[in-house]
């Protein structure tokens, strides 16, 4: 599991944005509570994105296996035989 991927941190920031806003702008929430909520959001983000990656991984394998091949790439040039 990747905790420090940009997508994970971005989703965690979006999930904990209300708490971060209340801690930084409004001032009615302590920074400790806001960071605890952010860390919980990181854990939830890791699980959600790992599930999404697992679901979409099979699509990439299928796409590569069934990818069209150009006609000129199908031709195999035999190396010259030296005697």
Strand residue content: under 5%
> Please, what is the average pLDDT?
84
Q: Write the element-wise H/E pattern from the N-terminal end onward.
A: HHHH
The helix content, as a percent range, equals over 70%
Number of helices: 4
Q: Tell me the structural class.
A: mainly alpha
The outline comes out as rod-shaped
Low-confidence stretches: none
Q: Report the sheet with the most strands, covering strand number, pairing sense and barrel closure.
A: none
- The span between the termini is 56 Å
Radius of gyration from the CA trace? 24 Å
Number of strands: 0
Summed up:
With 83 residues, this protein is mainly alpha-helical.
Explain what you see.
- By secondary structure, the protein is an all-alpha fold.
- It has a domain at 6-63.
- Helix content is 71%, strand content 0%.
- It has helices spanning 6-15, 17-26, 31-65, 71-74.
- It is rod-shaped, with a radius of gyration of 24 Å.
- The N and C termini lie far apart (56 Å).
- 8% of the residues are buried.
